[in-house]
Automatic annotation (TrEMBL):
The chain crosses the membrane at residues 140-158, 164-184, 277-296, 308-327. Its main location: membrane. It catalyses: Ca(2+)(in) + ATP + H2O = Ca(2+)(out) + ADP + phosphate + H(+). GO terms for molecular function: ATP binding; ATP hydrolysis activity; metal ion binding; P-type calcium transporter activity. This is P-type Ca(2+) transporter. Residues 160-329 form the Cation-transporting P-type ATPase C-terminal domain. It is found in: Membrane. The lineage of its organism: Eukaryota, Viridiplantae, Streptophyta, Embryophyta, Tracheophyta. Its EC number is 7.2.2.10. NCBIfam families: ATPase_P-type.
């Protein structure tokens, strides 16, 4: 039974053909049950296959993995699987062959008894999680840049560079059209090759912070230059310079949306031809932006721009692409950045004294 389980696991891809049994990857239920609590906790993460296991052995493994901080999923269809199904974070049972006890103890019931449905659920779940991260990165970049520019301008000069209507338009791009564009990304096989997200893994990763800070810093530098030196550099009046500022800010967000399509890959245009809805939304944003600048002068408080001024705005926005490519060459640690802050303060000895009257 031991060698049969190993052979089946190798055929399924759970074990590698050259992986030795003495590495602790394969174990029998009786051996696992006879281990002490300390030995069990030490070896549980190395186990890939447990042969001849009883319902109690499955329950023990689920409990050990959860104590280790893992998110545990258990599949089963028999009455004996009920304790492990209930103990797991997510219990999966079969809707046709599964017993009623197993179904009641499960969180998800596969109605067609096709285990391939689990893979479909996983790939779409990971895709949605990645799309949420992409939108958060996109929105935080715009928010950080807008907040810093407005704060500095308000404190130093007592005026806000963006009007209320312009801020509403920027929020429309970020919250509605931006979210819709990034949410249309379909799952790829690559998402299944990534490690599972842990229970305590932060939603905003170090990779996202790296991308956010690089793009936000560039936008703040460009927009600050336009705000305070644009009139003298480009030889325009104040109203045209304000329009250049607003137009550049919006176009930077549009071009940065391409960077947000992939958090790690340098080529942000890979597979973009397959996502026609994304390109349609980007095209819609650009058309609306042209209408806002060129035809809604009184409503948006803008001035018409000539071809050269449009080229300046587009040129500034285009620079976000090579910046995104360069910054992705920088490796970041996997450990969350804020964990260093918690560790620093946890090492401090704090003493409280009470002095009575």
């Amino acid at each position: 039974m031991f060698f049969t389980a190993k052979a089946i696991a190798t055929e399924c891809g759970i074990l590698h053909p050259n992986q030795e049994v003495d590495e602790g990857a394969v174990i029998e239920g009786e051996e696992f049950r006879s281990l002490t609590d300390e030995e069990r906790m030490e070896r549980v993460e190395k186990i890939r296959v447990m042969a001849r296991s009883s319902p109690f052995d499955k329950l023990l493994m689920v409990q050990c993995l959860r104590k280790k901080g893992h998110v545990v999923t258990v599949t089963g269809d028999g009455t004996n699987d009920a304790p492990a199904l209930k103990e797991a974070d997510i219990g999966l049972s079969m809707g046709i062959q599964g017993t009623e006890v197993a179904k009641e103890s499960s969180d998800i019931v596969i109605l067609d008894d096709n285990f391939a449905s689990v893979a479909t659920v996983l790939i779409w779940g990971r895709c949605v999680y990645n799309n949420v991260q992409k939108f958060i990165q996109f929105q935080l970049t715009a928010n950080v840049a807008a907040l810093m520019i407005n704060f500095v301008a308000s404190v130093l000069y007592g005026e806000e560079p963006l009007t209320s209507v312009q801020l509403l338009w920027v929020n429309l791009i970020m919250d509605t059209l931006g979210a819709l564009a990034l949410a249309t990304e379909k799952p790829t096989e690559e998402v299944m090759k990534k490690k599972p997200v842990g229970r305590t893994t932060p939603l905003i990763t170090n990779i996202m912070w790296r991308n956010i800070m690089a793009q936000a810093t560039y936008q703040i530098a460009v927009l600050s230059t336009l705000l305070y030196k644009g009139e003298s550099i480009f030889g325009v009046n104040e109203s045209v310079n304000d329009t250049l500022f607003f137009n550049t800010f919006v176009l930077c967000q549009v071009f940065n949306e391409f960077n947000a399509r992939n958090l790690e890959k340098k080529n942000v245009f890979e597979g973009i031809q397959k996502n026609k809805l994304f390109m349609a939304i980007i095209g819609l944003i650009l058309v609306l932006q042209v209408v806002m600048v060129e035809f809604f002068k009184k409503f948006a408080n803008t001035e018409r721009l000539n071809w050269g001024q449009w080229g300046i705005c587009i040129g500034f926005a285009t620079v976000s692409w090579p910046i995104g490519w360069l910054v992705k060459c920088i490796n970041v640690p996997e450990r969350p950045i804020f964990s260093y802050i918690r560790l620093k303060y946890s090492n401090l000895d704090v003493h409280f004294y009470f002095f009575g009257p």
